[in-house]
TrEMBL record:
The keyword Transport does not apply. It comes from Faecalibacillus intestinalis. Keywords: Schiff base. GO terms for molecular function: aldehyde-lyase activity. This is Fructose-bisphosphate aldolase. It is found in: Cytoplasm. GO terms for biological process: carbohydrate metabolic process. It comes from the Bacteria. GO terms for cellular component: cytoplasm. Its main location: cytoplasm. InterPro entries: Aldolase_TIM, TAL/FSA, Transaldolase_AS, TSA/FSA_arc/bac.
Length: 210
């Protein structure tokens, strides 16, 4: 079971790794835009410095064509380190890029997964992590937990060395359900994970013990 945080806010990362059993950090273009770092690569180096090499760092590409995705991945690895997981959206071009990157021995997280067949394509292409978007899948009227469960079964049945990294959460129940339906890892905003401890009963019990 892996708890990963979905943020590039340095103070949030420092606090999260100090207080919780966090094993990694994920980022995407919208999260980076919110933080607005002056120098993207310098900022991500700071993230790596905080979390260390023992935790995973997942950085998403912004390119859409295979050749550009691969080129961008090489730049990320050159600037940060070769342990970074390159987040590649599972599009037609993205799957081709995943195949090429894995052939080079580069870590890949297949992201923006909304459909089971998308996930199967990423799995067959060799992705290390596959990230279904839980809340967004639900907003489309589909069942994200069914997708996670079926993907988990396929990984076990066919013996793939791949983990489900469920993403896009609005609350703790979604996180809990993702784990219970077979996701080995989740990535969520720090504020969502803090909600785990916002239960009045927990606070009441804590005061009683004092």
């Amino acid at each position: 079971m892996e708890f990963i945080i979905d943020t590039v806010n340095l103070e949030d990362i420092k606090e999260a790794v100090e207080y919780m059993p966090i094993v990694g950090v994920t980022s995407n273009p919208s999260i980076v835009k919110k933080t607005s770092p002056k120098d993207f690569f310098q900022h991500m180096k700071e993230v790596r410095k905080i979390i260390g090499k023992e935790r995973s760092l997942h950085i998403q590409v912004i390119s859409k064509e295979c050749d550009e995705i691969v080129k961008e991945a090489h730049r990320i690895i050159e600037e940060i380190d070769d342990q970074v997981y390159i987040k590649v959206p599972v599009s037609y071009e993205g799957v081709k890029a995943i195949k090429q990157l894995k052939a080079e021995g580069i870590n890949v997280t297949a992201t923006a997964v909304y459909d089971l067949m998308q996930a199967y394509m990423a799995l067959a292409a060799g992705a290390d992590y596959i990230a279904p978007y839980v809340n967004r899948i639900g907003n489309l009227g589909n069942d994200p937990m069914e997708l996670i469960n079926e993907l988990s079964n396929r990984i076990v049945q066919d013996g793939y060395d791949c983990k489900i990294l469920a993403a896009s959460f609005k609350g703790v129940q979604q996180v809990r359900d993702a784990f219970n339906y077979g996701s080995q890892a989740i990535t969520a905003p720090v504020e969502v994970l803090k909600q785990i401890f916002a239960n009045p009963s927990i606070e009441k019990a804590s005061f009683k013990l004092m």
